[in-house]
Specification:
The complex is a heterodimer of chains A (about 200) and B (about 110). With about 200 residues, chain A is α+β, with helices and mostly antiparallel strands. Chain A has four helices and eleven strands, in the order E-E-E-H-E-E-E-H-E-E-H-E-E-E-H. Chain A has one domain (about 25-195): 2-Layer Sandwich (Gyrase A, domain 2). The N and C termini of chain A lie far apart (about 55 Å). Chain B is mainly β. Chain B has a single domain, classed as Folate-binding superfamily (Folate-binding fold), CATH 3.30.2270. In chain B, strand 4 (about 50-60) and strand 5 form a beta hairpin. Chain B is globular, with a radius of gyration of 15 Å. Chain B starts with a strand and ends in a 25-residue tail after the last strand. Classes of the chains: A alpha+beta (about 200), B mainly beta (about 110). Bound molecules: zinc ion (ZN). Zinc ion binds near residues 8, 9, 59, 63 and 65 of chain B.
Chain lengths: ~200, ~110
């Protein structure tokens, strides 16, 4: 028998890429942002009671325009569909925010689901980041079409990703299913080698 | 690259989408009274036209919503896309074919 373990009092927050050293090339880097709590919100864009309840808890309105993100005091809300949003939140406050949202949605046709451990997020940034992304992503990433706080669910090679442009660097946060994280990280690192001068 | 306009996300590459067969097929409300032939026609038979076809598509890698498309099955030209419940994209000069299950429906 294993030794008696101390009871777990707090969730263990870890991601599949923990411990990876940043990858750098000329004009582009691949890094790991801090582990984020991730909540999926479901409700209608056209349901005023739902959007008001979400805005009250989040301190900012949900982004209602397709493929846009909105930063608020409690986290970053990303549009996924007309009835669906992803909220990235500080991992330490995720449980409390989920409970507040669940309470605020009582009686509404709405839902909150914690998907923190279903996805991993990696960060690709620098003037060459667009060129690296273009190797596997069919989106037009020209700033006229995709700019800061635009987001999109799309494809990178074989993996479904949620892409969010963080700043004009450009820096992109790329969310992917946990089981695809190693594939995507490795693919991006390899795609960056072209820009490494020796 | 074949661009397809998702009614929500806008123009995206075809590889983000999957095809879902003929659109506007309405489930009969009187299924208990149908003959086997009539039920079989609803379940299995599609118009499969040469020319204008109204069909369902799914934005699989994007917003994961179903929508409808008017497309020419010969040329591949897309006449338009629209959300479920919205009226069909009207394509006046395209050859018309009879559509199974009447003219309405959510799908
Ligand atoms: Zn879409």
């Amino acid at each position: 028998m294993a030794e008696q373990q101390a009871p777990i009092t707090a969730p263990i927050r870890r991601g599949p890429l923990d411990g990876r050293a940043p990858v750098t090339a000329d004009g582009v880097s691949l890094t790991l942002p801090a582990f984020a709590g991730k909540l999926v919100l479901r409700g209608g864009s056209d349901d005023g009671a739902f959007t008001a309840a979400a805005a009250k808890v989040l301190g900012a309105g949900l982004p209602l325009a397709p493929n846009t993100a909105a930063r608020g005091p409690r986290g970053l809300a990303l549009w996924l569909g007309p009835t669906e949003w992803m909220v990235h939140v500080d991992a330490d406050t995720c449980d409390a925010l989920a409970a507040e949202l669940t309470a605020a949605f009582a009686g509404l046709h709405a839902a909150v689901v914690d998907v923190s451990d279903y996805y991993a997020v990696m960060r690709l940034g620098g003037p060459r980041a667009r060129d690296v992304l273009a190797k596997g992503c069919p989106l037009d990433l020209h700033p006229d079409r995709f700019d800061v706080d635009h987001c999109a669910q799309t494809r990178f090679v074989a993996s479904a990703i949620l892409l969010h442009q963080v700043d004009v660097g450009p820096t992109y946060d790329i969310q992917v299913r946990w089981s695809f994280a190693d594939f995507l990280w490795t693919y991006l690192a390899d795609a960056m080698r072209e820009f490494t001068s020796r | 690259m074949l661009p397809i306009r998702c009614p929500w996300c806008g123009e995206r590459e075809q590889t983000e989408f999957s095809y879902g067969g003929e659109a506007h097929i309405v489930r009969p409300t009187d299924s208990a009274d149908l003959t086997d032939a009539e039920w079989g026609d609803y379940v299995f038979f599609r118009t499969n036209p040469r020319g204008l076809h109204y069909e369902r598509w799914f934005h699989a890698f994007g917003c994961r919503r179903w929508f409808n498309m008017a497309r020419d099955t010969v040329s591949g030209a897309i006449h338009g896309t629209y959300r479920p419940g919205e009226p069909r994209t009207d394509v006046p000069d395209a050859p018309r074919v009879p559509v199974a299950g009447g003219d309405g429906g959510e799908g």
